[in-house]
Amino acid sequence: QVRLVESGGGLVQPGGSLRLSCAASGRTFSNYGMAWFRQAPGKEREFVAAINWIGPSTFYIDSVKGRFTISRDNAKNTLYLQMNSLKADDTAVYYCAEGRGSYDYWGQGTQVTVSS
């Protein structure tokens, strides 16, 4: 059974930083692409960043380019999202997801709140 567990969310002031982690278990982590999504109150879930299993190559939505960095440690079966220069608009529940072509498994989410 695949399990994804996010951690690292919290309350941070505008301009601050957080690093999210996603611990994966249940299948060979290095064989799958990983991604971060987020859902703000009253809005649909949106893609934030992805990293594939080959290369690896990374992809970001425009609003986080230059501020967020997605990375993975295959030895630790862990996905990361380093978030810098956080803005109020980044406030959301952040989810990690795993798959190939489509994302088959999702974590439970971790809350990120950017507020002064």
Briefly, what is this?
The protein has about 120 residues and is mainly beta. Helices cover about 0% and strands about 55% of the residues. It has no helices and 11 strands.
Give the terminus-to-terminus CA distance: 40 Å
Order of helices and strands: EEEEEEEEEEE
Q: Approximately how much beta-strand content do the residues carry?
A: over 45%
In DSSP terms (H or I, runs of 4 or more residues), the helix count works out at: 0
Task: Report the strand count.
Answer: 11
What's the pLDDT, averaged over the residues?
95
Radius of gyration: 13 Å
Secondary-structure class? mainly beta
Largest sheet features: 7 strands, mixed
Topology:
Layout: E1 3-7, E2 10-12, E3 18-25, E4 33-39, E5 46-51, E6 58-60, E7 68-73, E8 78-83, E9 92-100, E10 102-106, E11 110-114
Parallel strand pairs: 2-11
Antiparallel strand pairs: 1-3, 3-8, 4-5, 4-9, 5-6, 7-8, 9-10, 9-11
